Amino acid sequence: MKKRLLFILLAIGMAFIACKHQPEEKVKLMEVSLPPPPAAEKALSSQKFSAPVIKANEDNIEQDADQISDKGGESVPLATNKVDIEKKIIKEGDIRFESADVVKTRKQILTSLKHFGGYAENDSETTDAALRSKEYTIVVRIPAKNFDAFLGTVSSTATKIDSRNIRVKDVTSEFIDTKARLDNKLQLEKRYQNLLSRAGKMRDLLDIEEKLTEIRSDIEATQGQLNYMSKQVAYSSLNITFYTVQPEQVATGDGFGYKFKHALTRGWDFLQDLFFSLIGNWPLLIVFAVVFVFIKRWRGRRVAK
């Protein structure tokens, strides 16, 4: 019995010594990744695949707007479309000339205008009875490619050209800037429409709709400016003024009545000229009157003696 007990103690001692000399195994907690419990795993999966909740308050709206602002935000650059870099030229002019027959000239101008694909914006007529003149003013719009040819046709109808001025303006850079602003505003509108579809609160909806109304107003104004500039480039403007002076007509005749009337008119004109000439020489009349009175008195004294 004692030998068996001693053997057991000896075995326990050897086992203790062996365990003491065995190297310790260090475990780093950071390297251990435990699987989440079923409830947590379900919550994580729900959070990963559910639609994000958008709080469309003022700060979020401004942050999203800044990323696609019409000036091209620095945080998220906008995708800009390639703009046509063809030169955009606006040509305008005016011409004033004298014509022998204004009615015929007007007809020729309108016929030529129709031939070159233009149209008249304004057509007015003025008659001055005192100056015996008639004047026409026509403001036309002509395709830019036909401007020079049409101007040459108009000049050929003139008897004497008083003035001719042609003005050319390059609006290429202005056109490109306006087009870029319009594209950016359209992208900004799409971003706000996306926010509108994802907003959940009534206050957020009202704020976004108010911002969309402001953006739409800017888009319409910019589009109108771009359309007007395109029209100015496509159709040149020319202000045409032409006139004629009627010669003074002198009545002629060989009848007795005409000659008698003409003689009375000349006699009356002669009396008027004589009367005004005498009034104009009144100092000489006074001198003659004084000399006449002096001579008459002197002769009277001699007769009395």
Terminal-residue CA separation: 220 Å
Low-pLDDT parts are 21-62, 65-84
According to DSSP, the number of beta strands is 5
Radius of gyration over all CA atoms, rounded? 53 Å
Strand order of the largest sheet: 2-3-5-1-4
Mean pLDDT: 75
Specify the helix fraction band. 55-70%
Helix and strand element order: HHHEHEEHEHHEHH
* Count of runs of 4 or more consecutive helical residues: 9
Decide which structural class fits the backbone: alpha+beta
* Largest sheet entry: 5 strands, mixed
Strand content: 15-25%
What is the 3D form?
elongated
Protein name: DUF4349 domain-containing protein
Domain DUF4349: 87-294
Transmembrane segments: 274-295
Keywords: Membrane, Signal, Transmembrane, Transmembrane helix
Describe this structure in words.
- With 305 residues, this protein is α+β, with helices and mostly antiparallel strands.
- It has nine helices and five strands, in the order αααβαββαβααβαα.
- It is elongated, with a radius of gyration of 53 Å.
- Strands 2-3-5-1-4 form a five-stranded mixed beta sheet.
- Helix content is 57%, strand content 17%.
Tag the structure with descriptive keywords.
single chain; 305 residues; alpha+beta; five-stranded mixed β-sheet; 5 strands; elongated
